[in-house]
C-alpha cells in the first residue's frame, strides 16, 4: 500500500482464503491482504508461501480436486475459526491458435479458471448462508473478460465466463449479504518476461501494473469501503480498456 | 432477389431440430443454401426440414466426435451456426456439478470444437467463412437461477471475440447474436402460465417475447455478404431488454 495510507487495519479481524499463492499476483495478494490486517489461508498446488507466519496459513491443494472445496474450508476453519472472504486467483493459460488449441488444454483451462472458482464459491456461499453471516468473493478476471488477445481462446472463454459467474452469483446472493466482485487486471509485471516496448505503447500509462497494485485493489473490494458494490468488475489496466 | 442470398452456399446449423436453430435452418434453406442440420433427435430435424427435402440431417450429440465427423462429411461449409444450447435452472447454492458440466460442454466446448474444425478446414482450403454463435442477453446480464447458463453464454461471448481476432487473418468472420426472451422450448414452461408471461413481457420494452424467426433474421444477416466487414460483432436482439 502506498505510503501515507493506513491500510493496516482495513481488514482487521477478517479471514480470507486466497488461491494460487505460490507466485506472481497470488503471492502478492496473500501478503497484501495479510498486511491489511487479515488472516490469510493461502492455497497453492506447489510450494507453500514462504512468508507463512501466524497470519498466513498455507494449504497445499489442487483447486480442481473434487474434495478441494471441503479441504480448503476445513483448513480455514481449523486455522482461524471463521471465514469472511474468498479470492479466486488460481488460473492457468495455454497459448495456442484456435486451430491448435487441444481439447486437453481447453478442459484444463475451464476446470481451473472457471469450474474451480464456481465450486469453491458455491461451497463458501453455502457455509455463509448456513452461518447467516455475510461474505465476499473476489474473482480474478482480466481485461480478457471483455477484449481479445491473440492465441489464447480457451483462456479468453474462461475469463469471459468468470465475469458471467461473478454477475450470476452476485445477483442471487445479494439478499444473503454475500457480495461477489471481479478485478480485471491488464498486463501485470510478474517478473517472468520483460515487457516489450510495443506492449508498453498500447498502455496509456506506458507501464505494466505490479502485483502489489492488484493486491491493493482487491483489499479495497474486500473492505467495508466497497460495501455497496456487488457484481461489478474493476479494471486495473493503466487505461488499456479506454481504447 | 432475397431468395438467392445464400444460393450455392453450404451452411451447417447445430440445434436445428427446434427453436432458434430450426428457424435459422429453414431460413437458410428458403434463401437458397444447402443446409446440414445437426441435433440430438432425428424427429425434430425431420419436422424442421419437412418442406426442404434436399437438406442433410444428422442426429448426433454436439459434444461427440460424431458431430465433428458430420461437419467433415458435409464438407466445404461456408457458414457454421452454433445454435445448440441447454438451460438447467437451479439456485446457485444447490446447482449440481453435473448440470454445470453439461451446460459448459454443450454451450461452450462443443461450439469451440466445431469452430476449430470449421477453421482448420477453411485454412486448408484457403476459403473464407463465417461462424455465427447464438449467445444470449445473459452474455451481458445475469439470469436468476441460471448460474451455469449465464457463465456459459458470457464465456461464449468472449470465445466469439477471441476466435474473431485470431481468425480474421484467414478471412474467417466470427460473430454472434444475443437473443432476449424468445419463444422456444427452452422457456416454454415459464411462458405457459399467462400471469407469468405477462410479468415477463412487462420487463421487455417492446412488451412481447421474441420469435425464433426474428433471431434467425439476425443470424442470416451476419452470415451474409451484407455483413462482410463485421467480425467479433454480437448483435442484441432482445426487444430492448438491455436498455434498463
**Biggest sheet architecture of chain B:** 7 strands, parallel
Work out the helicity level of chain B. Answer: 40-55%
Give the overall shape of chain A, derived from the CA principal axes: globular
Rounded Rg of chain A: 17 Å
Q: Characterize the main sheet of chain A.
A: 7 strands, parallel
N→C terminal distance of chain B: 38 Å
Helix content of chain A: 25-40%
Keywords for this structure?
heterodimer; A: 243 residues; alpha/beta; seven-stranded parallel beta sheet; 6 helices; 38% helix; B: 244 residues; 7 strands
What does this structure look like?
The complex is a heterodimer of chains A (243) and B (244). With 243 residues, chain A is of the alpha/beta class. Chain A has helices at residues 24-35, 68-80, 103-131, 153-173, 197-202, 211-222; strands spanning 15-19, 39-44, 56-60, 85-88, 135-140, 178-185, 233-236. In chain A, strands 3-2-1-4-5-6-7 form a seven-stranded parallel β-sheet, sandwiched between helices. The longest helix of chain A is centred in the middle third of the chain and has 29 residues, at 103-131. Chain B contains eight helices and seven strands. In chain B, strands 3-2-1-4-5-6-7 form a seven-stranded parallel β-sheet, with helices on both faces. Chains A and B meet through α3 and α4 of A and α4 and α5 of B.
